[in-house]
Amino acid sequence: MKAxxxxxxxxxxxxxxxxxxxxxxxVIRAVGKAKDVPVPEGAEIIDAEGAYVxxxxxxxxxxxxxxxxxxxxxxxxxxELLKHGVTSVLPALYYSLDQAAFVAAIEKINxxxxxxxxxxxLGYYMEGPYLNPGFGCNQDKNSWRFGVFxxxxxxxxxxxxxxxxxxxxxxxxxxxxxxxRDVKREIPNCVFAVAHSAATPEQVERFxxxxxxxxxxHTNATGTIEHYSECRGVCVxxxxxxxxxxxxELICDRIGAHVVPYMQRLVRRVKGDDRIILISDQFVDDGxxxxxxxxxxxxxxxHAGEIAGSAMTLELACRNVLFHMGCSVCDAFRFASTxxxxxxxxxxxxxxxxxxxxxxxxxxxxxxxxxxxFKGETV
Length: 379
Fold this sequence. Notes:
Layout: E1 2-10, E2 15-24, E3 27-33, E4 44-47, E5 52-55, E6 57-62, E7 64-65, E8 68-69, H1 74-83, E9 86-94, H2 99-114, E10 124-127, H3 150-160, E11 164-169, H4 176-186, E12 191-194, H5 201-205, E13 212-215, E14 226-228, E15 231-232, H6 236-242, E16 247-251, H7 261-271, E17 276-279, E18 299-301, E19 307-310, H8 314-325, H9 329-343, E20 360-363, E21 369-374, E22 377-378
Parallel strand pairs: 1-4, 1-5, 6-9, 9-10, 10-11, 11-12, 12-13, 13-16, 16-17
Antiparallel strand pairs: 1-2, 2-3, 5-20, 7-8, 14-15, 18-19, 20-21, 21-22
């Protein structure tokens, strides 16, 4: 038995001061105030020294760790993210991969996980192939823009179906409904996300019955709101805000380039604290930094100067959201752990609760990582 003591324990909607967490064999056995949870004799003591202790972070959407893509070295990426408190991760595979590259990436990541060398792998976030070719970085590398054909996508479904949890789509693509049906038949629990899309609200809503419940990097790479001159229309963003079933992913970089702070606060007001998911969307690109973005040290740009994801890990997004939204550490853990777990239908993680996996992250008030425990073992 191990015991975390002297902790400010983060629960989904409150904090337990001077809390204790008991865990054994990688599973949480008890949690509560020190006066209510006696530490068994002989237990290994882990003194939190007053730190906030929350559930392991769950990054459902990231392409890389540091300067390395998951497609290049998934073992390195997994280990690197663990140091930053990401105890569960969905590697994102982007539409810039052609069919052969998609298949090769899946095979490499599967092998890393099944060999035991990538234990924080949670499954795939398929950011493609069928998105709107007019949105997103590296558009010139999109080989999937010419049509939706079963002969092209069937190998991806077959190869990834064992572990895919999220599949992104642009609802306006011709033939996309057949693709969604095929995915749903082979991967019944797959969640769909609207991504890189110019769909109308009606087109988005058509896929909610199939399991569309996530908005990929909300307000980024989404459609126009032009209507008539001087009259505002509606697009994907309004559909996401309106439909309470849909979780809104947010990339919260330091200067608020992906989502300006006022918009972050507006999304929180509209969606509520239970429907926001923080993501890192780490990418690797070294394009020129546009004028005015010199302080954007946690953002990447492609060769055309377009924003190409972030250069931050998820705990940095949590730190940024404290300032941009004025929320609490408790809220940040909800956005970066509890909500992503619930969006994926996972109930064994995302919260500190009896029976859950003993994935714990120790942070200070600015979300600096102090310690990480993964499946009951210190990282």
